[in-house]
Design goal:
Helices cover about 40% and strands about 20% of the residues. The model has no long low-confidence stretch (mean pLDDT about 95).
Length: about 850
């Protein structure tokens, strides 16, 4: 869709010209039930050195423009309101009255109709530059100002923004709510919500007694029963931790969390009104790993109250500075402040897979990336910025010491509170607490791409180690690593470990202390997961792991192993049948549900993508049979049973065997003791049966009546379109390409239907049409929806490789180019690994 794409150069030019003071923003939401637009009035107070500026605004119209009270003729086009002949170096007031549109894509001010109780809910999401969808502003992170917000909405609604309510004035059926002014705040961090939300509350007092604030968790009324007490308990525990660790009192007044429907992402750190996807409200049975993930997200967003909100990156090239730190803090504070002490295990076994995958794509980038414009920033909310950055920070903390790291963070907050800063500012603060060469560390880790590969080299004589070394390899120059190398005996008991420093430019490092020790059955590099690198194994270690992986007691060590084995499989260095066999062999004994979930998902992915067609169907049958047998042995009602049931449903949906349908029916009939037929499991079963053409539309409709909720209706939409018939693929393809017809949640469900199991051959005829309509897809949908469509409809056939190259030769927009390059690389990897299996 057409809109102005702010460049870094333009942002820097505005920053030099403007001294921003305040925004006064009035939103009139009184006609929310009858109109698709809403009036907005914005008053901006500033001083400028430039007579020519522009405000960012993606509204539908501008009704009036006043500059210091003088009426001006608006010059408004393509997302910008141009301001001409401004008085310079004096106080300036710009007033704009405009009309903005509600969203159905999760951007700007999203409006959702809840059919469960015939109500409307509004919430905002503005990162990185969608504040301009709601009100005219200078939409860039370094131009902070105080916000004075008023909102008019139905008086029976909850009306929420970043700060507590100051006044509430009733006007007939509506209420004007005025909020206390914010501290200096970036535009993308402003937040608005309104609707018949309900809340659970408690109070929190800081450990030193300095603060006493109200904590709230809001949800739709139809989801209120799922707002469990743990949410606010974790919030309070996190505030305890950060209050003491950061040495800067929570600066944003109340702490409100709001769980919203149809959300594009997991959560957003709006200060004082943190937004979460309502999938974190567990209406179905949830595993410990799901609770741990929710805890991590709550604490991730909370750390942003300091990293990102209090001190904000000047531009999106330091996006990692807040997201990598928040990813690190989510895990570190989970371990330190909650019962979820396995957080670093879950990170090593799940999130780092995302980092390694992203870092091997042709579109990989340094952690501190060059971000020329806002569209590029949107693409960099990825596995590098989050997971790799956090992994590298974990190494930095190990490198300088945890106490030193937190001491440097405290200095950073004290120095740059309520302003914008860069990584160099943080590095300066850390240097005050470490004698390590942090400049060299920064160059090595933040300005380079791709993972190093670390391989043990073992020489033995007479059952003893004569030499143990670590060989480091990289596409370019290797980086410095501080890691732990561990030795295990035949019983998989650890009998030795070594803290090893690998030099930045070294290729092989000998561990002198290992000489003379007994020959190990397993050499495990990066125990404790202190560094970021792909880990390899010698042949003996691989044999040991294939037979005995689940006998390793330490779950973090198992996480490192599972991730390393998956990297070997993705790289074509370990046969798919060996990886799948290892998963099947050790699944029932894997006690960590995150590791189990990830391993099972990877096994299914490997069968679908990395096996040649001649071996794929037989392996699907055997894998589904194996999981079925393991599932029957799992403890009733356990996390393992639930994880295995979810994986078994997916495997049975894939299987060509007739018995698969029978087994799905047995599960749907409640014949597996201990497995609750909650909505999530029931819909997974119905969708699997639909993909096998083994359910009637009447049965699917009955499921919709049973679960007449937003989630249930989206699931039904996908299930009713999952039948393996050509006319269904045609219909869903056309529906997906209808701009504005569906919410983001419905788009996801329809994409799942298009890519349903057992219908690969039915999707192949759409390959040529996909490439012929790519321009249309990109231009007619918002970027977040277009991103979903381009990735979700990408043809998984060999001829798509050449077709992608041809399309890229037409010089498409950079954001679209990046998506296609990643899709193409994933296809090429799949074809390459298939040839090796």
């Amino acid at each position: 869709m057409t809109y102005a794409n702010l460049t870094q150069a333009q942002a820097q030019e505005r920053s030099l010209a403007i001294e921003l003071s305040a925004y006064h923003v009035d939103l009139d939401l009184s006609a929310v039930r009858t109109h698709d637009t809403f009036p907005v009035h914005t008053r901006v107070e500033l001083r400028t050195e430039s007579p020519e500026l522009f405000l960012d605004y993606l509204g539908t119209s501008v009704e009036s423009l006043l500059i210091n009270g003088s009426v001006q003729s608006p010059h408004f086009e393509e997302g910008r309101l141009y301001l001409h002949h401004l008085p310079v170096e004096e106080d300036l007031v710009i007033e704009v009255s405009g009309t903005s549109s509600y969203s159905r894509t999760g951007q700007g001010l999203h409006r959702m109709f809840d059919r469960a109780d015939d109500t409307i809910y509004l919430y905002s999401h503005l990162e990185p530059s969608d504040a301009r969808r709601i009100f005219p502003c200078f939409d860039q992170p370094d131009l902070k100002a105080r916000f004075y917000v008023r909102m008019l909405a139905p008086q029976e609604w909850q009306i929420l923004s970043n700060q507590p309510v100051a006044t509430r004035e009733i006007e007939g059926d509506f209420a004007w709510v005025t909020f206390h002014p914010t501290p200096p705040l970036s535009t993308y961090l402003t937040a608005f919500a309104a609707g018949p939300y309900v809340s659970r509350t408690r109070s929190w007092t800081s450990p030193d007694g300095f603060l006493d604030i109200k904590l709230s968790a809001f949800s739709r009324a139809s989801m209120a029963q799922y707002v469990d007490h743990e949410i606010l308990d974790i919030t309070a525990a996190g505030l305890d931790f950060f209050h003491e660790s950061f040495g800067f009192p929570y600066p944003w007044g109340e702490y409100k969390s709001i769980f919203v429907p149809e959300y594009n992402i997991g959560a957003m750190e709006n200060p004082g009104l943190v937004t979460f996807t309502e999938t974190y409200l567990f209406r179905s049975q949830a595993t410990r790993s799901q609770h741990a993930a929710r805890t991590n997200t709550i604490l991730h967003e909370m750390s942003h109250m300091w990293f990102g909100d209090l001190v904000t990156p000047r531009w999106w090239d330091d996006l990692w500075l807040k997201e990598s730190f928040a990813e690190f803090m989510g895990a570190d504070s989970s371990v330190a402040a909650t019962d979820y002490s396995e957080a670093w295990t879950n990170f090593a076994g799940q999130r780092k897979n995302w980092a390694y995958m992203q870092d091997q794509l042709p579109t990989t980038h340094p952690i501190k990336a060059d971000i020329p414009d806002v569209d590029a920033a949107r693409q960099n909310f990825d596995g590098i910025t989050y997971a790799k950055g956090a992994a590298v920070l974990k190494q930095l903390v190990h490198y300088v010491g945890r106490e030193n790291f937190y001491a440097g963070a405290r200095d950073y907050f004290a120095e740059h509170a309520y302003s914008a800063a860069t990584f160099d500012d943080l590095l300066t603060a850390l240097k005050g607490h470490s004698d390590r060469d942090l400049d060299a560390w920064s160059r090595s880790w933040l300005r380079t791409c791709g993972p190093d590969t670390l391989t043990p080299h073992l020489e033995t004589v007479g059952g003893k180690i004569s030499r143990l070394s670590i060989v480091a390899e990289a596409a370019e120059e290797t980086r410095p690593h501080r890691l732990v190398a561990a030795l295990y005996d035949d019983a998989l008991e650890k009998y030795a470990s070594f803290d090893v420093d690998l030099p930045a430019a070294g290729t092989e490092t000998t561990i002198e202390e290992a000489a003379g020790l007994a020959r190990p059955a397993l050499v495990l590099l990066n125990e404790g997961d202190y560094t970021y690198a792909k880990v390899r194994f010698d042949a003996t270690s691989l044999e040991t792991l294939r037979a005995g992986l689940s006998r390793i007691d330490d779950e973090l060590s198992r996480a490192v192993v599972w991730t390393a084995l998956w990297n070997l499989t993705r790289d074509g260095l370990w046969p798919v049948r060996e990886y799948v066999g290892t998963v099947v062999e050790h699944a029932i004994a894997e006690s960590n549900p995150t590791l189990l979930t990830t391993a099972l998902a990877n096994a299914r992915f490997a069968i679908t993508n990395f096996l040649p067609a001649t071996a794929r169907e037989a392996t699907r049958v055997s894998y589904a049979d194996d999981l079925w047998a393991i599932l029957r042995d799992a403890a009733p009602g356990s996390d393992a049973q639930l994880v295995l049931a979810r994986a078994s449903i997916a495997a049975l949906a894939d299987s060509p065997a007739d018995t698969a349908t029978q087994r799905l029916r047995e599960l749907l009939a409640g014949e597996l003791s201990g497995l609750r037929l909650d909505p999530d499991i029931r819909w997974a079963l119905l969708r699997a049966l639909s993909a096998r053409d083994a359910v009637s539309t009447a049965e699917l409709d009955a499921g919709k009546e049973r679960d007449y909720t937003l989630t249930g209706q989206a699931a039904h939409l996908g299930a009713i379109h999952s039948f393996p018939k050509p006319e269904h693929k045609r219909e869903v393809f056309d529906l997906l390409l209808s701009p504005g017809a569906f919410s983001n949640a419905e788009i996801d469900s329809l994409l799942q239907a298009f890519n349903a199991p057992r219908s690969q051959s039915l999707r192949e005829p759409f390959a040529a049409e996909y490439f012929s309509r790519l321009d249309e897809i990109w231009k007619s949908h918002p970027i977040e929806i277009a991103n979903r469509l381009v990735r979700g409809l990408y043809p998984g056939v060999a001829q798509a490789d050449a077709a992608t190259t041809d399309f890229l030769a037409q010089d498409p927009p950079q954001a679209l180019r990046r998506i296609l390059l990643e899709c193409q690389d994933n296809l090429r990897r799949a074809l390459r690994v298939r040839a090796l299996n």
